[in-house]
Amino acid sequence: MAHWFHRNPIKATQPMKFDGLKKCAKGSKCDELITQLKVTRQRLLELFNNHANSVEDLTVAFTEYIGLIRGLVDAPNGGDSKLRTQTLFKWTNTLGGRVPSIHSDAMFELIAIVTNMAIWHSKHAMHLASSDEISMEVAKEVHRSLKISAGMFLHIKENLLSRLPASPEKGVDTDSRVIDAYAQQSQAEAQEVTVARALELNHKASIIYSLSLETSNLFVLAADALKTLDQTQFGKWTAYLQLKGSIYEAYAYCFYGKELLEQEKCGASVRVLQHSKFLCECATKICGKYAKTKGAGTIAKPEYHPFFQKLAPMIKLHLDKSERENGFIYYQTVPSELPEIPKQQVFGLATPEDFTLPPHHPLWTEEVYAAFNVPEGSGQGEGPTYESKAAASQEEIAPVPEPDIAPAKHPQPKTESGCILQ
Asked: Region Disordered: what ranges (predicted)?
C-alpha cells in the first residue's frame, strides 16, 4: 500500500565518553557506572536506527539507560543530582537539520532519549502497517505502539519540559508546541485504527461518524499547535495534519448523511453529503499542497491509498441516492445551513498509554553517588547551560541512516472500505 503516515526524522547525536564524570569519579564502582552509561547509550542508539526491531529489545535497553541517566538528573535520595551539569550533550532536532542543540544538562539528555523512544514507537507502528494485509494481532500492536508514543510525548509535555531551566528556542524539540503536535498526532493515528476497525465490522453510521469526527479533531489540534512556528520548516508536517483532519471530517459527514437518509431526512442528508463532498475536494487539494511542500521525513502518499480513493465514490453513491429519493419521494427542502453532527458518547476512543520514567538503575546506590567528588565550579557552567544555534553552528551531526519502508507489493487490500487494519 502507499505510505499513509508522515514521519519526521529521528533525532541524531554523537557517541559520549562522559569525560566530565570521569574527572569526578573516585573508585572502581564509579568507573563501572560510567562504562555502563557509555555502552548502554550506544546500544540504545543503534536500536533506534531500525524501526523493525522488537519492542521488547528497545524497552530493555531504554529502561536500563534511563535508569542510569536518572542518576545524573536526580540524586538517589531526592533532589537535583550534583552531576546534572557535568556533561555536554548534543542532539539534533527532528526538523532542524544537522546543526545540534548543545546543552550541559542531563535533563536535556533524558528528554531527548524519551523523545526518540516515542518517535521510534510511531515509526515501528508505520513499519507494521506497511503490509497490504494485517492480522488482528498486528493491528493491536500498531494501536498500542501509537498509544505508547502519545503517552510518552504527553509525559514530556506535562512533567519534563518544566524542569528545563530556560525557555527553548522556537521550533526545537523541547518547544512545547512541537511536543504537543507529536502527542496529538500519535493519538489521532491510534484512533485511525479504531475507525478502520469500525468500518470493516460495518458498525452503525453513528459510531463511525462520531469516531471519525473525534479523529479529525485530534489532527486539527496537532496542526494548530504548529501554526505559530516557521512554516518553511514545519509546513510539510502541518499540511499532513491538515490533510488527515479533512479526510476524517469528510468521512464523518459522509456517514452522518447516510444516517439521515436512513431516517428519511433526505433534505438534510443532501446538505450534509454536499459538505462531505466539499471536504473531500479540499483534502485532494491539500494532497497537492503537501506533495509540493519541501520538508524532511518519510513522505505520506494518501492520494494513492485505497482508504482515501474510495471516499469520493462512496460520498457520490450516498449523495446521488439522497438527491434521487428526495426528488421522487420526499420533496424536502435542502437547508442552507449545515446540520451539526450530534454530540454523543463515543466508545473505543484511543487514549495515550500512561508513561512513567523507569527508576534509578541498581548501580546508583547512595554510596556510589557520594563517591563522585564534584568540586565547586567544576561543571560545564553555573547551572545547566543552553547554547544558541549560532554557537553550535560550527559543527554538524550527520542524520541517522534509517531504513526506507517500501509500500506493499499489492496495493489493493481485500476489504470493502479500503482499510487494511482489520
From this structure: 374-422
Q: Are residues 176 and 294 in the same domain?
A: no
Pick from 158, 175, 202: which residue ends a domain?
202
Q: The domain that contains 210 carries what CATH number?
A: 1.25.40.280
Domains of the chain: total: 2
Do 198 and 212 lie in one domain? The reply is no
Give a three-class secondary structure readout of the chain. CCCCCCECCCCCECCCCCHHHHCCCCCHHHHHHHHHHHHHHHHHHHHHCCCCCCHHHHHHHHHHHHHHHHHHHECCCCCECCCCCCCCEEECCCCCCCCCEEECCHHHHHHHHHHHHHHHHHHHHHHHCCCCCECHHHHHHHHHHHHHHHHHHHHHHHHHHHHCCCCCCCCCCCCHHHHHHHHHHHHHHHHHHHHHHHHHCCCCHHHHHHHHHHHHHHHHHHHHHHCCCCHHHHHHHHHHHHHHHHHHHHHHHHHHHHHHHHCCCHHHHHHHHHHHHHHHHHHHHHHHHHHHCCCCCECCCHHHCHHHHCHHHHHHHHHHHHHHHHHHHHCCCCCCCCCCCCCCCCCCCCCCCCCCCCCCCCCCCHHHHHHCCCCCCCCCCCCCCEECHHHHCCCCCCCCCCCCCCCCCCCCCCCCCCCCEC
Checking if the pLDDT of 418 tops 60, the result is no
179 and 64 within one domain: yes
pLDDT digit string, tens, across residues 34-51: 999 999 999 999 999 999
Domain presence at residue 25: yes
- 98 and 195 assigned to the same domain: yes
Tell me the average pLDDT of the chain. Answer: 91
Residue 393: inside a domain, yes or no?
Answer: no
Share above pLDDT 70 across residues of the chain, in percent, rounded to a whole number: 91
Q: Which domain holds residue 127?
A: 8-202
Residue the block writes with cell 502527542: 183
Query: How does residue 286 score in pLDDT terms, banded at 50, 70 and 90?
Result: very high
Is residue 63 domain-shared with residue 175, that is, in the same domain?
A: yes
Report the alpha-carbon distance of residue 314 to residue 309 in Å, rounded: 9
DSSP calls for 194-222: HHHHHHHTT--HHHHHHHHHHHHHHHHHH
pLDDT tens for residues 162-206? 999 989 999 999 999 999 999 999 999 999 999 999 999 999 999
Residue 369 counted as domain residue:
no
